[in-house]
Write a structure and sequence with these properties.
heterodimer; A: 280 residues; mainly alpha; 10 helices; 0% strand; B: alpha/beta; Alpha-Beta Plaits; 6-stranded mixed β-sheet; 4-stranded antiparallel β-sheet; 14 strands; globular
Chain lengths: 280, 336
């Protein structure tokens, strides 16, 4: 009888190669959802495009005069770099929503019962959300281009800006992963993810220069990660002239990347820890 | 002596004030089905979560397939399969993609995962629908697919948390057959259930769990001995109650009792249908025609009454037997 004996207890270890393979499997799984349910991607894109159109045509005229000359006199040129970061911030919320959906359906339990790398579910989730975010950002850029946006530096500045935005999106994805794992409930998480993002996006230089804000708000707005990341993008896409006196393009890029790394350093271990202890 | 496939010793787990598991010790040999029976909220799922590495107990030791789950969870995970209470399958993937993915995560190579997936899909009779998205599947198909996913890594032991809850009777039999096949091939299985007849049909050993404690353990026969077997239950017109009780006296082991609340007479039926036939014969000879008469096998409710003296207090337990209270039997002698 084969049932009477067990193989001798050999110790199974998860290697880095396993971790990478598991992450690839999970990433593919999550991306397939976007491919099979294209309406998900459609709605994810409609919202940022709507923001783009509304802000450009509704506020553009009123704000147009206040923006730095580096924008070439067009509000759309000022708006697009800001919106790229806003889209990244809102898009990161999907990480929390996706995780809580998996939690509520028992999928996370199954994954946790498998001999897979403990970080693979989160790594795969954030990676697939990054790819998805990249798609949405590219689409929004295209619409921006169609309605008159032009970069004022070079295509490399433009691509560099997108890279900085994606880095920030990835870092925020881990914040959202931690929020999702802490909140756990798919309905509650919908509002939980917007709670930190909304004030950060509006009290920033995404839509308007911070110079017109009251001093106390400006002190906050100038030093929070969204404004700093937007500054880096504007520096890259519009040039030095888009920045305030005392700021340099390289300096703002460095600061923005530092913020992203700092957020990652805090929230990635936190999210992995929450994942390990999800049922305790 | 066989090494136990599952061995839990003095396992306790509290969630805040609630003692979900209270000093549970349990073990069984490989190659059998162990049925863990209890109402909702008894601690069945918590125990499964501890045994499958999802949850660390506050105290106690756990070995699964010879591996210390708390010290070496990764190795334990290569040897166990879990199918939870809800089919954890992805709607937008096909059945095949779902199972293949889990195979890959069980450390199978791509080719091996493909081959093994084809095998298990055949086993669960899902070959024809294998390449359709799961969102087109029925509830029973999803549950079968979930079972397939739990088997794809060739686990030595499968943990099935209420595999048939919420499944219609036809599909229930399918899943039973599948479980029986798997054990015949050498897989060990621990399943939880709220249905006494399910544990009775499938399990070689049954543990009864209530309020986080394992209150009884043994073979189905031992358990049923404690319950005292089936009951013949009938309703007669009010003026005939006493006559009926007299007529049916000493038919089985115990005396007939009249339950005022339900206005039904209960007769212990140790010989099952034979007792029923004898009862009908006597009633007919006495010219009594009951309004209705049924042979009722012991339910989980009865088991709990017999073992604990109280009915199961699961918050959703009632809904399983429809009008659960109707069928509840009081222990012989306590009827008022």
């Amino acid at each position: 009888m084969t049932t009477t004996t067990h193989a001798p207890p050999e110790h199974v270890r998860i290697t880095l190669a396993h971790g990478i393979r598991d992450t690839a499997v999970i990433t593919r799984r999550n991306l397939l959802r976007n491919v099979r349910l294209p309406q998900l991607l459609l709605f994810a894109t409609v919202q940022p495009v709507m923001f783009l159109l509304l802000f450009n045509y509704v506020f553009g005229g009123a704000i147009g005069g206040e923006i730095p000359a580096a924008a070439g006199g067009k509000y759309i040129n000022w708006l697009v770099p800001g919106l790229l970061v806003q889209v990244a911030a809102f898009g990161a919320g999907q990480t929390a929503i996706g995780l809580t959906e998996d939690l509520s359906k028992g999928v996370i339990d199954r994954f946790r019962s498998l001999p897979m790398a403990r970080s693979a579910v989160l790594a795969g989730r954030t990676l697939s959300d990054l790819i998805r975010n990249g798609f949405v950002i590219t689409l929004m850029m295209t619409v921006g281009f169609l309605i008159g946006f032009r970069w004022q530096t070079s295509i490399f500045g433009m691509l560099g800006g997108m890279l900085v935005a994606m880095t920030f999106a990835y870092a925020l994805s881990w914040v959202m992963a931690a929020i999702g794992l802490a909140v756990k409930n798919p309905e509650a998480v919908q509002s939980a993810v917007f709670l930190p993002v909304f004030p950060l996006v509006f009290a920033s230089s995404v839509f308007v220069p911070t110079e017109t804000m009251p001093d106390w708000l400006r002190a906050f707005a100038d030093n929070q990660p969204i404004t700093i990341t937007v500054n880096a993008l504007r520096g890259l896409i519009l040039g030095q002239g888009a920045l305030q006196p005392g700021q340099t393009v390289a300096g703002e890029i460095g600061l923005a990347l530092l913020w992203s790394l700092g957020i990652l350093a805090v929230f990635a271990p936190l999210a992995v820890r929450l994942y390990r202890r999800i049922s305790d | 002596m066989n090494q136990p496939i599952v061995m839990a010793e003095n396992v306790s787990k509290a969630f805040g004030e609630v003692q979900a598991l209270d000093d549970v010790s349990l073990e069984f040999e490989p190659g059998i089905i162990y049925g863990l029976l209890g109402p909702n909220g008894a601690g069945k799922t918590t125990l499964i979560r501890v045994l499958t590495t999802l949850l660390r107990p506050d105290t106690g030791t756990v070995r699964v397939a010879g591996i210390d789950v708390l010290h070496d969870p990764t190795t334990a995970r290569t040897r166990l399969g879990l199918a939870g209470q809800f089919a954890a399958v992805d709607d937008y993937l096909t059945g095949r993609e779902n199972v293949e993915m889990i195979g890959r995560l069980y450390m199978l190579s791509a080719a091996e995962a493909k081959r093994r997936t084809a095998e298990v899909l055949e086993r669960i009779h899902l070959v024809d629908s294998a390449d359709r998205p799961v969102r087109t599947y029925s509830g029973g198909m999803r549950r079968r697919l979930d079972l397939a996913a739990s088997m794809v890594g060739r686990p030595q032991i499968l943990f099935l948390d209420e595999p048939t809850t919420g499944i219609d009777p036809g599909n229930r039999i399918d899943i039973w057959d599948l479980i029986i096949d798997m054990v015949a091939e050498g897989t060990s299985i621990l399943l939880t259930t709220q249905y006494l007849d399910e544990a009775d049909q499938l399990a070689a050993r049954i543990g009864v769990i209530d309020h986080g404690k394992l209150i009884s353990e043994g073979t189905p026969e031992q358990l049923k001995d404690k319950l005292g077997g089936a009951v013949v239950e009938m309703a007669v017109s009010d003026d005939m109650v006493q006559t009926t009780i007299d007529v049916l006296s000493r038919i089985g082991e115990g005396e007939p009792t009249f339950e005022k609340a339900s206005k039904r007479i209960h007769v212990p039926a140790p010989d099952g249908s034979r007792t029923l036939v004898e009862a009908v014969r006597r009633l007919d000879a006495a010219g009594i025609t009951p309004d209705d008469i049924v042979l009722r096998k012991p339910t989980l409710d009865d088991a709990f009454l017999a073992l604990t003296g109280h009915a199961p207090e699961g918050d959703e337990g009632e809904e399983q037997s429809g009008n659960g209270r109707r069928g509840r039997r009081r222990p012989a002698g306590s009827a008022s």
